[in-house]
Amino acid sequence: MNFFPINDIPVNYFFSEPIYVDDGFILTSQEMPFTLELKNALKEWNFDKVRSEGQPQENHHNGTKAQSKKAGLLSLNDGTKLADAMVFYADFQRFAEDIFTRAASNGRISYEIVAEKIRDVCEEIKVNRRFLLQVQKDIKAEGNYDFLAVHSVKSTIISIIIGSYLKLPAHRLIELGIAALLHEIGMVKLPPHIVQSGSELSTKDRNMLMLHPTIGFELLKSLDFPMVINAAALEHHERENGSGYPHKLSGDKIGLYGKIIAVACSYEAITAKRPHKDARGGHEGITDLLRNEGKRYNESIIRALVFSLSIYPIGQFVLLSNGSRAQVVDVNPADPRFPIVQVLDEKNLDGQNKIIETNPAGIYIRTPLANGVVDVSDPASSVQ
Asked: What confidence score (pLDDT) does residue 15 get?
């Protein structure tokens, strides 16, 4: 496998073999040009190179490898959707950064503009859900408000996916998405050293940090956002058992959007790198929430998260029961323990990595992999 610096690849050139961005996940097939939009999206993800066994060429030529028609179409379809997801995600990230910058500078945020963007996000999730989940795991936060924007964008996508599983109608999914995108908006009114702290906060600073739901509520209210959205910003740190803040609400006193965002942003926080902690794997994040210690989260919403992302979320590298390494590429709606995986150590006749459905009677996931190393520390990591 050869490495190609992104800056050295001519725009709209074709590769004679598929391009990969990580161990085995295809970015483009031979039929797809390396577009300027794709190049810019990769740079925003802090990728500086891609991998391929082929070479860039000005025109597309049919490869010499024999490929079945079905396999060729599947490869093209997946590569196209992943590329589309990367470009869409980068655009959504820029939109979120602009929203937080405007809020920090006392600029007005338009409800209509935000609603239109979330409407587009809902449509994109319908057609590109698994690819959005695949690319978002590699997003890293840098700069002033990048942390808030990255966290909010990831939480928005997860919240909408949960809402879709719960069969919320389209207008409520849009409301939920707006609330998720803006749930941390109160943070921009806090001193930067509190928001961006890489160490434990003093009691005074922590008390100030805990004001951000109330500040966000008041800010959105002043901008004439609907009350159901304002309330979600206020309630996203409330917990089912009454242990949350700012008002220690419990159970049915917490609105549905607040409950969903609580689960989504908690999962994102567990699996994201922060200045004071390393990122944990998606499997760890899911199992952490499944334990639901102290019954802090709504059980139905945790179930929706698990069935939407699976026990081993999309993008998670895993070790299979036959000893092969694989990457989760889609969920199994019937059983979240047995997702669909792309086997990295086994090829089809067309040269592409084999994709299989894991199952208890055949090949199943033995344990998650973190950075290529088997994680044996989690007793819940193997499927029996």
From this structure: 85
Helix (H, G, I), strand (E, B) or coil at 123: helix
Final residue of a domain: which of 309, 327, 345?
309
Q: Which two tokens stand for residue 318?
A: 């895993």
Let me know whether 276 and 214 are in one domain: yes
CB pairs under 8 A, 24+ apart, for 272-275? 272/141, 272/150, 272/151, 272/154, 273/140, 273/141, 274/147, 274/198, 275/196, 275/197, 275/198, 275/199
The enclosing domain of 97 has a CATH number of 1.10.3210.10
Structure tokens that stand for 34 in this block: 């390396």
Closest CA to 158 of 145, 176, 171, 142: 176
Please say which residue of 285, 309, 333 terminates a domain: 309
Cα distance between residue 373 and residue 46, in whole Å: 23
Report the distance separating Cα 27 and Cα 19, nearest Å. Answer: 5
Task: Using the predicted structure, report yes or no on whether residue 357 has a pLDDT greater than 60.
Answer: yes
Judge if 93 and 200 occupy the same domain: yes
CA atoms within 13 A on the CB side of 228: 11
| 185 contacts 233 by C-beta, under 8 angstroms | yes
146: left (phi over 0), alpha (psi -120 to 50) or beta: alpha
Residue 27: Cβ-neighbour burial (10 angstroms; 0-12, 13-18, 19+): buried
Q: What is the pLDDT of residue 279?
A: 67
Whether residue 305 is found in the same domain as residue 329: no
106 versus 335: the higher-pLDDT residue is 335
Specify if 333 maps to a domain. Answer: yes
pTM: 0.81
